[in-house]
Amino acid sequence: MTGSIVASAATSEERRIAITMDDLRWQDIPAAMRKDADQRLRAALDRHKVKAALFVIGENGDTPEGRAILREWSGRGHMIGNHTWSHRWYDKMPEEQFGADILRCDAFVRQFPTFRPYLRFPMLKEGGTRERRDWMRAFLKAHGYRNGAVTIDASDWYYDQRLRKCMKERAKFDVNLFREPYLAHLWDRATYYDRLAREVLGRGIPHTILLHYNVLNSYFLGDAMDMFRMRGWQLVDAERAFQDEVFTRQPDTAPAGESLVWALAKETGRYDSVLRYPGEDDVYEKPILDRLGL
Question: Whole-angstrom Cα distance, residue 260 to residue 246?
């Protein structure tokens, strides 16, 4: 391996992608926009006839506003998953306390008909040591859970922060200025992780992309799905994507986490020259948005 990601013989396979959304931070959406933002997100998914996975922070969901959103999403067939109760970093709390945080969220999200026992780790961090990683893997197995892993990591949360700042500080700010930079970011990350997956695994996989329930995606989720479809990718239901064998893999990496594809590549020891750590973060995107004045 020379350090470049070489496309595998599987490049002719159809590329597939599922939408997964984290957090349910409805409170970060300006109050006057919340109802319309939720409707736009659901309408984008309805238009493409796909079911997403919504990984819920329990303390955001267990509110009148959160419960109303979840009833609507579950009623429309979107998968509901566990994103812990308080969204704290696993390595910053004792294992047993983190486990209790998972179970507190579990007790809440289980009430929704489309709940499935998948955990999405906050910040995609699964343990800084092998001991913590293995403790948590055993805990999840004991409670009937699987890792709701991401294969395409991205930093939409940072684009959303910058968008909301512009909206707050600039009168009549045109949100569409974010459209092309954001879509370019998603395309860049999707094609990177897809090439890496094909190189490491020797085949295409149904990808799960990391997005968030936020203002940014309320404006541009539909555009993003249009982009993938027009460029030859198939949009698939999240629950269907998670049935692929790749999501049963448990890479032997420490610190554990990041994209599942990133971790599988790291495990081989052959891709260090193309794997940055962390896989995605604001430090990579800040210079881009600074140059654009956004």
Answer: 9
> Mind spelling out the 3-state secondary structure of the chain?
CCCCCCCCHHHHCCEEEEEEEEECCHHHCCHHHHHHHHHHHHHHHHHCCCCCEEEECHHHHCCHHHHHHHHHHHHCCCEEEECCCCCCCHHHCCHHHHHHHHHHHHHHHCCCCCEEEEECCHHHEEECCHHHHHHHHHHHHHCCCEECCCCECCCHHHHHHHHHHHHHHCCCCCHHHHHHHHHHHHHHHHHHHHHHHHHHHCCCCEEEEEEECCHHHHHHHHHHHHHHHHCCEEECCHHHHCCCHHHHCCCCCCCEECCHHHHHHHHHCCCHHHCCCCCCCHHHHHHHHHHCCC
What pTM did the predictor assign? 0.95
CA 262 to chain centre: 14
Selecting from 3.40.50.2300, 3.40.30.10, 3.30.360.10, 3.20.20.370, what CATH number does the domain 9-291 have?
Answer: 3.20.20.370
Residues 154-179 pLDDT 10s: 999 999 999 999 999 999 999 999 99
Interval 269-291 mean pLDDT: 97
Tokens of 101: 């945080």
Residue type, 227: M
Assign 1 a pLDDT band (cuts: 50, 70, 90). Answer: very low
